[in-house]
Amino acid sequence: MKxxxxxxxxxxxxLAKADKIKWISDTFFSSSEEAVHIFEQFSHKPSEVQKIFxxxxxxxxxxxxxxxxxxxxxxxxxxxxxxxxxxxxSSVVAAASSAAKFWMSRGGFHYEIHxxxxxxxxHFFWEGDTKKLIHLFDTEIKQALLTKIIPFxxxxxxxxxxxxxxxLLDKTGEIDHYYQLLIKFDTCDSMGANFINTILxxxxxxxxxxxSSRPHLxxxxxxxxxxxxxxxxxxxxxxRAWVKCKxxxxxxxxxxxxxxxxxxxxxxxxxxxxxxxxxxxxxxxxIFNGIDAVVIATGNDxxxxxxxxxxxxxxSGAYKSLSDCRIEGEDFVFSLELxxxxxxxxxxxxxxxxxxxxxxxxxxxxxxxxxxxxACAGLAQNFGAIRSLITTGIxxxxxxxxxxNILNHLNxxxxxxxxxxSHFNNRGxxxxxxxxxxxxxxxx
Length: 444
Ligand code: MEV
Description:
By secondary structure, the protein is α+β, with helices and mostly antiparallel strands. It has 16 helices and ten strands.
């Protein structure tokens, strides 16, 4: 038994990387050498690339590697794309590729962007008179803020973006003395988090300055400026993606049934996800399998995208499917609408060597184009998942990859893999079943 020792440390962040690895390996692992070996194995030798990775986040001791796959044959708004996808889950890239191929001969995927508006908020409390505050805002504060931020927005304005509006919201009905400054932005091709947060903090400082220095305000009640931060909920940064075909064109979706029956079953599956939140969460998770994979491959913030998408799915007050299916006469229409705040410049988009390649692969898209591509990947994924669920069942495709993973884990030889593939062709796959099978053939 390893001697119990103190597992806390002071000054960890100041240690050299090798010392960080050594301390962690010695402190938390019974085989320190093996742990050191693994951490070192998953880190490049000191190099320019490694330096870049280590600049992203603190206390980096290794690089966590995820598979970088591609889904070819995506026709999106009449342009053919090979879509980069970073994801660890089996079958996601295969399902996206298969859906892309299916829709390639049925008009492909389409998207339109509603808008790209981003939002930021300054939250503050004021114990003075609401009418007076509104008057001050309209007559003095708003203009002072717009003047103050000129140097910070000029570059963005040159690119066609900037501040769209600044509003004062009276929230005193919800929390006593609580107000918000809501600022709307167009951040062009950047996701804009840094830009927005900088502007908000400048505005907050200027408000503080106005109240503490102007003769008619400095002796009155002083607002309590609590915080200034962007909102990751961007309902007006929204994309709609869709596919459409004749019902008869769905005859090939699953050969045992005709297009009409397939469409009806598909429609019912989406209906359920619109009224049942237990199904809706899983349904939307499948959509984010596709979206997140593209978001990560292009260096965007998948946590922001997810948080926003799920809030949007609950916008009506009940959590619902983000996608919709309609059968309109002879036509089958499957669509997805959601907010997606993405960028193609700034952040790690232009730092990580692979995000640069992802964007290059997609023809260096604008943020709007990337929103469209990510939404189409989400729709493709959702199509693939529902198609499997209402026909063969999801495990059919999953299990083949699952079996590969287990065989790999159990160091199966080529011959053993061949035997296992044929044995499990029509049997349930589980870790134990595969291990037992291998033991049996190894012992015989
Ligand atoms: C698995 O990662 C995603 C699915 O569960 C999505 C769905 O059920 O629609 C297959």
